[in-house]
Amino acid sequence: MEKFRAVLDLHLKHHSALGYGLVTLLTAGGERIFSTVVFQCPCSATWNLPYGLVFLLVPALALFLLGYMLSARTWRLLTGCCAPSARGCCRSGLRGYLVCAQLSAAAALAPLTWVAVALLGGAFYECAASGSAAFAQRLCSGRHSSCADELPLVPCHQAKASDVQDLLKDLKAQSQVLGWILIAVVIIVLLIFTSVSRCLSPVSFLQLKFWKIYLEQEQHILKSEATEHATELAKENVKCFFEGSRPKECNTPSMKEWQQISSLYTFNPKDQYYSLLHKYVNKKEKTHSIRSTEGDTVIPILGFVDSTGINSTPGL
User: Fold this and answer.
1) Dihedrals φ, ψ of 53, to 5°?
2) Which residues form a coiled coil (predicted)?
């Protein structure tokens, strides 16, 4: 029991890092399966380039879009955005662009992993490069006269000239070098972004930890209370339907109240609220609104506030 509790505590403390690690491992494993089981280079001057690029880039694009779809923050931003009563929310200017940039950076993890692992494996790149006329002109300089014609056959080990078949090693080396360069660039950019965002953080290290603990507890309690309230309301409605009676009054937040706690979070150093719900209950009696005011900004380091929800993965 103690071991299970330790594992659970580890998951709660590092669920974001573990989630990204799991996504990376699944993406890398998927790429290996595709390259060994599904991928078969046609070894044709016409098809090598498009076939190799499709396997290299299209799954990356699909993973990128999937990253958007699985982000709770995406649906928090888009849900109700095009409704006639909320026309202004789609034109949020710099704030909206910043949130989209953060969503894109998070969604790019899986596709970049796919491309990097694919380049390290080399199969997709070898196929695509062998079908490129520009690559053929450069690689075949000073080689056998039939090199350009036989280059598309290299990935299938069907080139007759030995010096042409040896180009497979060059293609693999190029692919792996590009793969390691991509990995290095991603790590450097991630390190710079994390360092800058932490450096510009408006709150201290320990307060940030407290903030994340608060959000976990708030969402846990919100889900529990929402389940209880929804169950009570459903029971009352079903009971009245069968008995033909009038329902008892059951207080439920209005549409406007739901909208106010579902928008994007902005930070204001004058009023440090840990969530939109926290902000709403403190400002309800004063202004009946929690709209952004002067001094409110979107802080990258606080992006996790919008990433939480009653369910971590939205229903699609």
Assistant:
1) -65, -35
2) none
